[in-house]
Design goal:
Distance between the termini: 15 Å
CATH superfamily: PAS domain
Number of strands: 6
CATH class: Alpha Beta
Number of helices: 8
CATH topology: Beta-Lactamase
Oligomer: single chain
Helix content: 40-55%
Number of domains: 1
Structural class: alpha+beta
Strand content: 15-25%
């Protein structure tokens, strides 16, 4: 109980912009979890196939098209009609990601599967934007190549409203070439308790 109070206080401090009290420790735990679990999830044939299909579908997208789709996604958040968001949230690969989120006893707060342009392929829950390619989660995983692991800082996520850190790995094809990225939001308190 006392440890939870201290940890909660540290998380509150993190929300105010200060560094997480155990930043190095929690990042080390996130990287360990990425090596033991997330990297294995990223090799699932269904995940690889979904990313390959998205890469083929989005191959001709230029930055103007990506920006337009990102703007559409943002406009759909909270709207009655959400055709673009629904196309991702209701995709078969999203059902697989939702199983991972739901089966983690609260440790996994979100999952975002991205293609080689940083566009959402599958999610546990709708994200605040469609294009992740301008963010560290994609740039420091897919952009860093095969085997890359990136653990971001602890923050209160606007999508999940939980203190979490996003941990990302590169998704590769059968030849080992980078084709996308998988980001997993990890509950900070749950990760520290492990």
């Amino acid at each position: 109980m006392f440890r939870n109070i201290i940890l909660s206080a540290a998380l509150i401090v993190a929300a105010g912009g200060s560094a997480f009290a155990d930043d190095a420790e929690i990042k080390a735990k996130a990287e360990s979890f990425a090596k033991s679990d997330i990297a294995a999830w990223a090799t699932d044939p269904a995940i690889v196939a979904a990313v390959e299909a998205a890469n083929a579908e989005h191959a001709a997208f230029d930055q103007a098209k990506i920006d337009g789709l990102d703007a559409q996604w943002k406009a759909e958040v909270g709207a009655a009609a959400q055709p673009l968001i629904d196309s991702v949230v209701n995709a078969p690969i999203s059902a697989k990601l939702k199983e991972k989120c739901g089966g983690s006893n609260g440790l996994v707060t979100e999952m975002i599967l991205m293609d080689n342009k940083g566009l959402n392929v599958g999610v546990c829950d709708a994200t605040s934007d469609y294009w992740q390619g301008d963010e560290g989660k994609w740039q420091k995983s897919f952009g860093a190549g095969a085997g890359a692991i990136f653990a971001d800082d602890v923050e209160q996520d606007e999508s999940t409203q939980r203190f979490q850190l996003q941990t990302s790995v590169t998704v590769v094809d059968a030849s080992g070439a980078p084709i996308g990225a998988l980001t997993v939001g990890l509950d900070a308190e749950g990760l520290m308790a492990q």
